[in-house]
Structure to design on (520 residues):
């Protein structure tokens, strides 16, 4: 029993000021990354979902590349996208030493340090937005398709263009329907932000792992897990509550 | 309902008619869904101010006819002429032309659930015609008053009965100052006791001179309010004429058997 406690719940290690600060600093990175990438994914996903609904034959020019994008990035692990983004942006902002050609990307894009955050942080934001934008686009699409077709017909019959009808009638209804699944995606997104430890950001997992390597105790990792659960469980409960409320509305025939 | 004006007369442009005096003409209109032929070379003209009731068995193409007229479901071939201008084969120009002159009311009301009754009525004039909020609100209040909804203007659709929702839907279509109104089985989804309040509003509209095409199963309404009854089957007009003739003394076998089934119960 004592062995178990020492291995997972050694409060001496968890609340050692150095260790605690290190884990908290890591978790703070995780939170910042999740919120920024989460907001960008929500916006990018909606843009993709709307482009995917472009009507008409000409709309294929927009529709098909959008579908291809969504299919591809839903099918690639987030870790791979993170590695590709970081290596590619880093390399493309270096001048070619052999041929003497200049860099393809300016350094402030290739190795970003916007708002004082390190480059791996922004690589993570970019890669996770690319990936989760594709996931969220599918969630929005389900929401758009769940709006009865009569809504679009009524709006169009009143003279609204497709764009006006989407903006004023369809999208507001769709978003209400998809807030719970979007929150679910956000929980997954938040967990996937830990993958940036692979490109050198000391976020909560890496911080805990560093301490575990020094102390041979998993307690710092347990602390990280606890911090995650502190955020994700209330979010999960909020999702359940919202779904329950929606179903109650639906059963009253009001949704 | 006190009519403070004539909702049949648009506040904007006056309806125009073609050389033959008709406001709407359909010529050899064809529409198919896959292998199913829904409209099979349909011919029809409607005069200004005329009330046409369209009867027919389900699947006869009645609803498709309405949806072709306002290009919600454009015909595969044939010509549709509105106020002397062909709207078919002109892409978005035809769509804009017809949608600003022809209003439609649906079986399922299709009110916008996130907007209250007044906002439902004002949304299209504001976004499509770019009218000021004050002007749209004033006109919206007036129209909702006409359909007997003055006291419930700020209710959301979920708090309104089917009959009330349908009356709001009629006001919403009228807010675009249409020259022609299409009604697609607008009482079919209503509880029986709510049918009358909707038909009353339509009767007043008809009396005020609105051009109306009404797809309906309400034989009584057709008898009283229609100038002409059209019986459709198999994607064509089988028989048409004054209500008394088509309803009481039909010439065609198909009309007789359909009316026999409808009037039986």
């Amino acid at each position: 029993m004592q062995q178990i406690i020492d291995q997972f719940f050694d409060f001496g290690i968890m609340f050692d000021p150095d260790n605690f600060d290190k884990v908290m600093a890591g978790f703070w990175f995780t939170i910042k990354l999740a919120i920024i990438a989460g907001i960008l994914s929500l916006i990018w996903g909606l843009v993709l979902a709307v482009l995917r609904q472009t009507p008409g034959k000409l709309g294929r020019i927009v529709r098909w590349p959008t579908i291809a994008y969504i299919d591809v990035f839903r099918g690639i692990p987030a870790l791979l996208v993170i590695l590709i983004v970081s290596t590619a942006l880093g390399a493309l902002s270096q001048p070619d030493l052999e041929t003497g050609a200049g860099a393809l990307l300016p350094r402030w894009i290739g190795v970003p340090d916007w708002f004082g955050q390190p480059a791996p942080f922004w690589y993570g934001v970019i890669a996770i937005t690319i990936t989760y934008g594709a996931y969220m686009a599918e969630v929005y699409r389900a929401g758009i398709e769940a709006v009865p077709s009569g809504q679009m017909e009524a709006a169009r019959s009143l003279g609204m263009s497709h764009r006006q009808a989407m903006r004023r009638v369809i999208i507001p209804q769709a978003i209400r329907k998809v807030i719970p699944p979007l929150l679910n995606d956000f929980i997954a997104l938040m967990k996937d932000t830990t993958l940036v430890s692979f490109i050198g950001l000391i976020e909560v997992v890496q911080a805990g792992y560093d301490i575990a390597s020094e102390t041979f105790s998993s307690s710092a990792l347990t602390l990280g897990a606890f911090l995650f659960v502190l955020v994700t469980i209330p979010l999960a409960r909020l999702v359940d509550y919202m779904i329950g409320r929606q179903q109650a509305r639906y059963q009253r025939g009001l949704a | 309902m006190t009519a403070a004006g004539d909702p049949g007369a648009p506040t904007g442009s006056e309806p125009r008619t073609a050389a033959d005096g008709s406001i709407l003409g359909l010529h050899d209109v064809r529409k198919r869904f896959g292998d199913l032929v829904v409209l099979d070379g349909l011919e029809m003209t409607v005069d200004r101010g005329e009330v046409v009731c369209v009867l027919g068995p389900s699947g006869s193409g009645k609803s498709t006819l309405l949806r072709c007229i306002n290009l919600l479901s454009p015909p595969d071939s044939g010509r549709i002429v509105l106020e002397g201008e062909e709207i078919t084969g002109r892409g978005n120009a035809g769509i804009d032309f017809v949608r600003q002159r022809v209003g439609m009311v649906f079986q399922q009301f299709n009110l916008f659930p996130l907007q209250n009754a007044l906002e439902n009525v004002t949304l299209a004039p504001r976004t499509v015609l770019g009218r000021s909020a004050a002007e749209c609100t004033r006109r919206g209040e007036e129209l909702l008053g006409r359909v007997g909804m003055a006291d419930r203007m700020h209710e959301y659709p979920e708090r309104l009965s089917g009959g009330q929702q349908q009356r709001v839907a009629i006001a919403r279509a009228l807010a675009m100052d249409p020259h022609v109104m299409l009604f697609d089985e607008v009482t079919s989804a209503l509880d029986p006791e709510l049918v009358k309040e909707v038909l009353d509003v339509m009767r007043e509209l008809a009396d005020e001179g609105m051009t109306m095409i009404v797809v309906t199963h309400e034989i009584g309404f057709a008898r009283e309010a229609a100038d002409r009854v059209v019986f459709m089957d198999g994607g064509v007009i089988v028989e048409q004429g004054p209500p008394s003739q088509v309803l009481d003394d039909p010439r065609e076998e198909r009309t007789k058997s359909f009316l026999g089934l409808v009037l039986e119960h």
About this structure: The radius of gyration of chain B is 18 Å. Confidence is low (pLDDT under 50) at residues 1-11 of chain B. The interface with chain A takes residues 70, 72, 96, 99-100, 103-104, 106, 108, 110-114, 123-124, 127-129, 158, 169, 172-173, 176 of chain B (CB under 8 Å).
